[in-house]
Every structure is written in C-alpha cells, then in structure tokens.
Amino acid sequence: MLLRRLVAAAAVLWLASILVFALSRASGDPRYLFISEYTTKEQWDAWGRKYGLDRPLVVQYGIWFSRAIRLDFGESLRDQVPAIDVIRAKVPATAQLGLGAFVFAITLGIPLGVFAALTRGTGWDLVGRGFALLGQAMPGFWLGIMLILTFSVRWQVLPPSGRAGLNSMILPSITLGWFAAAALLRLTRSSMLEVLDSEYIKLARAKGVASWKVVWKHAFRNALIVPMTYAGLLFAGLMTGAVVTETVFAWPGLGRLAVQAVFGTDFAVISAIVLIATALYLALNLCVDLLYGILDPRIRHG
After folding, report:
1. Taking phi first (over 0 means left), then psi (-120 to 50 degrees means alpha), and beta for anything else, what does residue 162 get?
2. What is the mean pLDDT of residues 39-58?
3. What percent of the chain has pLDDT over 90?
4. Which of 64, 72, 94, 170 is 20 to 30 A from 84, comparing alpha carbons?
C-alpha cells in the first residue's frame, strides 16, 4: 500500500510540474518581462543562453525540472534573490498562523461534533448544527473585518494586523480556523451518529459496557476516520498559506506572498509556491493513509 501511494504521489507531483511550467510559458517568452527600450539584441540572446530560453520547450522543461527537484526555481524578479530564499523567509509566519488555526479548529470542531451527536434531537444539537451552517456560510474576509472592528477598533484589546507576538495571531487564527471548525463539527457529528447506530455499539450497550467506554473507545475511534481525512488535508491547506486571511490581517506569510507574486508576474516564486504546496498536500495525504491502517486494520490488510 505504501509503495502504491508513493508512486501515485510522485506521478501527481510530476504532472503538477508540467502544468506549472506550461502556465509559466502561456503568456509567451519570459524574456519579455525583462525587456525595455534599452534592451539590445545581444542582451536578448544572452538571456536566452543563461536561462535556456533559446532551446525547444521540451528541453526547457527538462532543465527547469532538474533544477526544481533541487529546490532551485530561479531568482525572484522583485527581490533579485533565489525564490526558495524568499519562500523560506515566509514559512515561519505561515507555520505559526496555520498551526494556530489548526489547533483552534480541532479543539472546537471535534468535541462539539461529538457532543452534538450524543445530544441528537435536543436544543444543544440544534445549536451545534446552526454553528456548522453559519461557520461554513460566513465569508472569511467578512469575519476577519468584523473581528477587527470589534476587538481592535471598538474594544482595542487585540492588534488589528501584522505579526508582533502571540496576541497578533489570535484574530487571524480564529478567522482562518472558523470554517474548518464548522466543517469538522459537521463531519464528526455525522460520522459519530453513523457509528452509534451500528450493531456492535448496540451490542456493547446491551452487554452493560460503561457509557464512556462505548463512546470514546468503541465509537469515537471508528468515527474518527472521516474527520481525520479532512483534518490532514486541512492542515496542508493552512500551512501553505491563506490568501484572504493573510491579506486582511497583513500577515507576512506565503498566502500574501503568492498574491504579490501573481500581481508582479514573479514566475519563479509562483511556481515554487505551487510545487511546494502540492508536495505538502501529497505528504500529509500519505500520512493520513498510513494512519488509516492504524485506526482500521481492514485497510492495512486489504
């Protein structure tokens, strides 16, 4: 199973590299980004020899891909430094924000989902489902602005933007993790209800097994597979940067860098972000597949 997953991940990453390279060439020769009224024919040819742009596209892709697997994506057009160095400087901020949002989503969404399932049909269940519906329908940029207006402008208890300590990550972490918490609540509730209605849970109750053991040892472990799948992919998405949240809160992370790279047609930075994000998604998805085998032996031996 592990070998099949690794081969599939390598194939997806290779296809993603082809797509990124094709899009980087969709607007024409990248040398046009450097051209000015003072550019000479000699400079044009020198750029072609330096970057391999005077060769067929297949050869250009081979040169680019061989460098990309060594994390050499070229120089950033805006900063005139290697693109990987630009990304490396933004990783700590994105990792801090992503981890904060992930912890918020997990600690809020999963317990509330279990509680809503155990109180099915009551007012608490209705409140939980209302939170899930509202959380998934609420636009992230609107939530971020409302949090800034409330806690920064009106009450002045939290900073409105920037990265200047733990207090500055509270509002963006809530904004980024709100949708995820609502989705985890809904998935956990549905999965728990399905497991609680299964025959082996009814048999455990009939045998007189303690209620807490039925819920947490038997039901919760089997119901965790679906939320865990979403949580793994969610963590990858949070760690690769949240464009809207980082833009609203002026957070100096990968999401904001991606926006700046797109507007500045900085192909080296854009391609690096896309491929690194793809690799992170694949790696975490592989980890989730391996955890499947731990939680459900049927998958491991299937």
Report:
1. left
2. 79
3. 21
4. 170
